[in-house]
Amino acid sequence: MKYIIAIIQPDRLDEVLERLTASKIDLVTVTSVMGRGRQGGIAQVYRSHKEAGTLLKKTKIEIAVNEDFVSLAIEAIAGGARTGQIGDGKIFVLDMAECIRIRTGEKGKVAIG
């Protein structure tokens, strides 16, 4: 079992979700977050004063998958999020020790869905 966390551009979310659905990956958690990478922040003009932006709006996607779906999930996220520009994001793949479905008490691979 793996836990996949991806940080992407907000405007790429719909494309990523479409590709995940096409790969039969429907169980997804999405959060609006702020962050920065190598591109730093973007300076903005507010009331005629230039303010240095330090954090940018990003979208965080979290997915728990069984081993059979890891490469499909990575391909879907990377393919949907990639623009070729700095700031496209990152994908992190972590080992997941346990998953428990609260409603039924099922554990492990069957609990992921």
Summarize the SSE layout with pairings.
Blueprint: E1 2-8, H1 13-22, E2 29-35, E3 44-46, E4 49-51, E5 56-65, H2 70-81, E6 89-95, H3 109-112
Antiparallel strand pairs: 1-5, 1-6, 2-5, 3-4
Helix pairs in contact: 1-2
Report on the biggest sheet. Answer: 4 strands, antiparallel
State the CATH class. Alpha Beta
**Total number of helical segments?**
3
| Beta content | 25-35%
* Topology-level CATH name: Alpha-Beta Plaits
Shape call: elongated
- Architecture in CATH? 2-Layer Sandwich
Count up the domains: 1
Alpha carbon gap, first and last residue = 11 Å
The average pLDDT is 90
Order of helices and strands: EHEEEEHEH
The tally of beta strands, per DSSP, is 6
Question: Percent of residues in helical segments?
Answer: 10-25%
How is the largest sheet built, in terms of strand order? 2-5-1-6
Radius of gyration: 17 Å
pLDDT < 50 runs, ≥5 residues = none
- What structural class do you assign from the helix and strand content? alpha+beta
Would you write up a description of this structure?
The protein is an alpha+beta fold and 113 residues long. It has a single domain, classed as Alpha-Beta Plaits. Helices cover 23% and strands 33% of the residues. The chain is built from three helices and six strands, in the order βαββββαβα. A four-stranded antiparallel beta sheet has the order 2-5-1-6, with helices on one face. Strands 3-4 form a two-stranded antiparallel sheet. Helix 1 (13-22) runs antiparallel to helix 2 (70-81). The longest helix has 12 residues, at 70-81. It starts with a strand and ends with a helix. The model has no long low-confidence stretch (mean pLDDT 90).
